[in-house]
Amino acid sequence: MAIMNVKALTFDVFGTVVDWRSSLIREGEALGKAKRLSVDWAKFADAWRGLYQPAMDEVRSGRRPWTKLDDLHRESLDKLLAQFGIKGFTEAEIDHLNRAWHRLDPWPDSVPGLTRLKRKFVLATLSNGNVALIVNMAKYGGLPWDAVLGAEVARYYKPQPECYRTTAALLGLAPGECMMVAAHNGDLGHASEVGLRTAFVPRPNEHGPGSNRDVTPARQWDVVAKDFQDLATQLGC
Amino acid sequence: MAIMNVKALTFDVFGTVVDWRSSLIREGEALGKAKRLSVDWAKFADAWRGLYQPAMDEVRSGRRPWTKLDDLHRESLDKLLAQFGIKGFTEAEIDHLNRAWHRLDPWPDSVPGLTRLKRKFVLATLSNGNVALIVNMAKYGGLPWDAVLGAEVARYYKPQPECYRTTAALLGLAPGECMMVAAHNGDLGHASEVGLRTAFVPRPNEHGPGSNRDVTPARQWDVVAKDFQDLATQLGC
User: Can you tell me the ipTM of this complex?
Assistant: First the structure.
């Protein structure tokens, strides 16, 4: 079986490992309460995430030079603060809110599952999040990565193939020795085109209740697991 | 005190965290015994390390394009096998010996010291070793890095300033928020020129018994510790 050769698992992070939406809502509500604001923070979180792909597209297309995700997040945040009519934040408060992305909560199975998987595999991030963001998030949530790689190190945003290829190369592995783990069929499709093996772990609550995005595997991925504990079991950890 | 601002410790690895010389001798002797060879493996290890700086100089000078340390090690190894008259190794055996650099033993205080330091600081490697080498070594020896950065990610070998600067930048930190930890006065001097804080941890046995290289601090570094446990104590961990 092809997955016998897998030496490293490469992880999508936002949505797959951490629950960005609930965490942003939590951070927004805490700040909103302190500042006595009336804001729909769920709407705010969705709008912020909504600006994610268009912001990266500017970089992917070459229309702007490499810009790390912290800076793209900040530009989107500035737009949204204006759009939602939120005023009176200090620079330090805006920066703190922007770094909410560094303080996203892991799904309940993430840390115990990764801890099991780490015994047998190299665990690397293959995220569009910049290194500092992913490192700080790992400290915050106790995520036991062996290596923080992905977009900023490759200087290409997913799903550009160089992002997957460079991550495998930095690990000293052929693409087929890496398995992409993601809650998103699209990410797995692009990883697969470059030769990575694939594991789908659906996160039905990523976009909040009632969402129907990526709840089932779109193709026959190498592994389909219900969470990271199940993934560890299926991979013999 | 300036070191109050330090958020990340960036580590030299070869010699500072791991005992490359004893480990290479151990690997050489095991292979030599299996192949019934009579080789002075201490001499071999020193000769291999002796080709380290000249090999990187070719890259630093721009005379050759970026080449990762695994490949430089391999070229040096091929030369030394000829020079020492060692014959009859298969390609797999030569590759295994080359990867002895992925299986270097930590000094006895390294893992317990790093484990304490990790509670308070981001721990990143700032080594000339390539990512796969450092990741595999961490798996082998249980080194709890938060991030594997340094030369291959920066695409500059130490002591070129870009290597230190890029590592700090990827951590999202100013140079003064990083403290370089090394057993080598030269490394600390170059880190200091770029603005990093400095911690000297002498490893008097790095070059074998009777060596007098780097046994004492050449300047008044921010911290001088006798090992990583002492470093943890001095940094309040």
Answer: 0.96
- Which DSSP helix (H) or strand (E) runs through A149? strand A147-150
User: At residue B136, what is the residue type?
Assistant: N
Cα R_g (chain A), whole angstroms: 18
User: With contacts defined as CB-CB under 8 Å, which chain A residues touch B172?
Assistant: 70, 130-133, 136
Cβ of B139 under 8 Å from any chain A Cβ?
yes
The CA distance from A24 to A22, in Å, is 6
Fold of A21-102: DNA polymerase; domain 1 (1.10.150)
Question: Domain A2-19+104-234 adopts which CATH fold?
Answer: Rossmann fold (3.40.50)
Residues 6+ apart with CB under 8 A from B120: B235, B236, B237
Q: Please judge whether A149 and B131 are an interchain contact, meaning their C-beta atoms are less than 8 angstroms apart.
A: yes
User: Shortest CA distance to A6 belongs to which of A99, A123, A111?
Assistant: A123
> Would the pTM of this model clear 0.95, i.e. be above it?
yes
In whole angstroms, give the CA distance from residue A144 to residue A118.
Answer: 8
Question: Which tens digit of pLDDT belongs to each residue from A9-25?
Answer: 999 999 999 999 999 99
Q: What is B20-102's CATH number, 3.90.70.10, 1.10.150.240, 3.30.450.20, 3.40.50.2000?
A: 1.10.150.240
**Do B147 and A146 count as a contact with CB atoms less than 8 A apart?**
no
